[in-house]
Specification:
Organism: Helicobacter bilis ATCC 43879
Keywords: Membrane, Transmembrane, Transmembrane helix
Shape: flat
Radius of gyration: 20 Å
Number of domains: 1
Protein name: DUF805 domain-containing protein
Strand content: under 5%
Order of helices and strands: HHHHHH
Largest sheet: none
Transmembrane segments: 35-56, 76-101, 113-131, 143-166
Number of strands: 0
Helix content: over 70%
Distance between the termini: 32 Å
Structural class: mainly alpha
């Protein structure tokens, strides 16, 4: 590994990861560490999704060539299902690192971590029916799930922006 990449990795990616695995809510993260950590996770997620898409396409091609199985090309329904599955998987895997690193970031910025409690409650209520993405008005989802989905989306974006823009205390 290139020494600069290794140094960068151990400075910005490993500490938040260690805090997450150890559930260390007492640690602090600077603004730069927080942003770089989450950008690296988002890039990793995008690359993983693209790799899975290419692997599925390659497997379908192998079956077409070897066994003369005529699978249709990808249509929008397959892609939507793949996208929703990827979103659910991303939310499921990265919810704990989000809460731990955001709590660490808020601690460094001087905000109590109780600010995250409503977001945790909203995630819990929303996960009761995980596939209710019913933000669009033409869905048959109950109004309760639509309200929770919209509130969760707005609060999640607000907390993320606050964590990114909060100045670092020394």
């Amino acid at each position: 590994m290139i020494p600069q990449v290794k140094k960068f990795y151990f400075k910005f990616v490993v500490p938040p990861l260690r805090n997450t695995l150890m559930f260390d809510f007492r640690a602090t993260l600077s603004q730069k560490e927080y942003i770089i950590f989450w950008l690296s996770i988002i890039i990793f997620y995008i690359l993983t999704t693209l790799t899975a898409y290419k692997a599925i396409s390659f497997t379908r091609w192998i079956f077409r060539v070897l066994f003369d199985v005529k699978y249709p090309k990808w249509d929008i329904g397959h892609l939507e299902t793949f996208f929703i599955f990827g979103c659910v998987l991303f939310i499921t895997i990265f919810i704990v690192p989000f809460f731990v690193t955001t709590a660490n970031r808020f601690k460094n910025g001087g905000i109590k971590i109780y600010f995250l409690a409503p977001l945790l409650i909203l995630f819990w209520l929303w996960s009761v029916n995980l596939f209710q993405f019913g933000i669009l008005p033409n869905t048959n989802a109950p109004l309760f799930y639509n309200a929770i989905s919209i509130l969760l989306l707005v609060y999640f974006i607000a907390v993320s922006i606050l964590a990114c823009l909060l100045p670092t205390k020394k």
